[in-house]
Amino acid sequence: MIDDSLLRADATEEEIIEFCEQAKRYHFASVVIFPYWLPVARRALRGSDVKACTVIAFPHGCLPTAAKVQEARQAIAARAQEIDVVVNLGALKSGDYEHVHRDLEELVTVAKLNGITEDGEEVLTKIIVETTLTTREEQERVCRIAEEVRADFIKTCTGAGPRPVSVEDVKFLRSVVGREMGIKAAGGIRTYEQAMALINAGANRMGTSTGPAIVEAFDRIPISHASEVSD
């Protein structure tokens, strides 16, 4: 359920290793790190159920498609198991939906054709629509494109936008894609209460840099109250 993120530019190798050890203790779905750290993370996560996830064209997506594809290929060669791809926000805001479609189609194709993990699974692709900078119409367009190119998840935000993810963001995206596609809520999620509200709105993956605090807050809540919150 939780993708724990460490996307600080000044993170050290020692911090990445400890971050991965922490993720194993909490059994997070994945760790999200910059591509440079993939070899370190894969070694640290060996033998665990935690996946290594990285970001492509982060945080604004405004790279030529060829550069994004090369970045994805390199990440997959470094044994990334999941990739979070930022939609080209400049192209999207300019109404160049043809480019957005081509861009995402090539990236998802690379993941599906070249990204078979040691478990025999395809590399998971999550498309970041950046709800903090896009309109509902633009978000719907990206969702439809993501469905057409067979991406696995729509992700709300990079965390670099002007506001946190909202319940309304998740509800809207879920109303567009239905139950067939995953939704990852991310961007400013700091508390258990935020996380539960987003899950109840339709998110089935959570991106945060405070995963342990959220889990520990859940563990402190009486079972009866936790059930009420999640109903």
UniProtKB/TrEMBL annotation:
The record's section on SUPFAM superfamilies has:
Aldolase (SSF51569)
Alphabetically ordered keywords of this record: Cytoplasm, Lyase, Schiff base
Q: Please, which domain of life does this record's source organism belong to?
A: Bacteria
| Protein location | Cytoplasm
The record's SMART domains line, in alphabetical order, gives: DeoC
Q: Which GO terms describe its biological process?
A: 2-deoxyribose 1-phosphate catabolic process; carbohydrate catabolic process; deoxyribonucleotide catabolic process
What GO cellular component is one of the record's annotations?
cytoplasm
Sorted alphabetically, which PANTHER family does this protein's record hold?
DEOXYRIBOSE-PHOSPHATE ALDOLASE
Protein name per UniProt = Deoxyribose-phosphate aldolase
